[in-house]
Amino acid sequence: MFKNLTYKKKLQLIFIGALVMLFVVYHMAISKTLNRRSQCKELQGQLVTIENAPTQMAEIHSELTRIGKIIGKENNKEDFRQKILEETTKFCENNKIRINEIPEPVVIDKNDYEIYTHTLVLEGDFQNLVRYIYELEQNLELSNVTSAKFYSAKEVRTKQKKLYLKLFIQNIQKQK
């Protein structure tokens, strides 16, 4: 049967046969090996994650404990307000900032927590007010500066524009 074929035809048949064999070998052996290799890599990644799980759980647990201690600290709202006032007064005396207004805090009850929102209105130049915000964020551990609004207003008596900072500070406490 192959004796009557030319070398060109024989070469073509060998090439076609090689392609068919390559296709069969790929589907029967190589593709399964590649699938197993990807599964192996995936399982190794999961193994690393599982090995790191106890340390991650310990870190998360310590973070939760720290946050619970901060929220659960007995921190009287008047003491907290006094602390804000002391820090503000100290900073304002040294940096030519004037305390304009400190209204009563707003209290919101949510689930088992009370959220106290303290408001401060200060007057001064931009750099000192920004420096005050930075100092307050660094020094207050039981609260969070939630909003800072800069605005200017014209003073009626002197007819000068003054820069004001309205600052909102929130403190979260567990309900008693």
Quickly describe the structure.
This protein has helices at 7-72, 77-95, 126-139, and strands at 98-101, 106-110, 113-123, 143-154, 161-174. The chain is α+β, with helices and mostly antiparallel strands and 176 residues long. Strands 1, 2, 3, 4 and 5 form a five-stranded antiparallel beta sheet that branches.
Q: Indicate the proportion of strand residues.
A: 25-35%
Number of strands: 5
End-to-end distance, in Å? 99 Å
The 3D shape can be described as elongated
- Estimated radius of gyration: 36 Å
Biggest pleated-sheet summary: 5 strands, antiparallel
**Could you name the ranges where pLDDT drops below 50 across 5 or more consecutive residues?**
none
Number of helices: 3
Average predicted confidence as pLDDT:
85
Secondary structure category = alpha+beta
Share of residues in helices? 55-70%
Order of helices and strands: HHEEEHEE
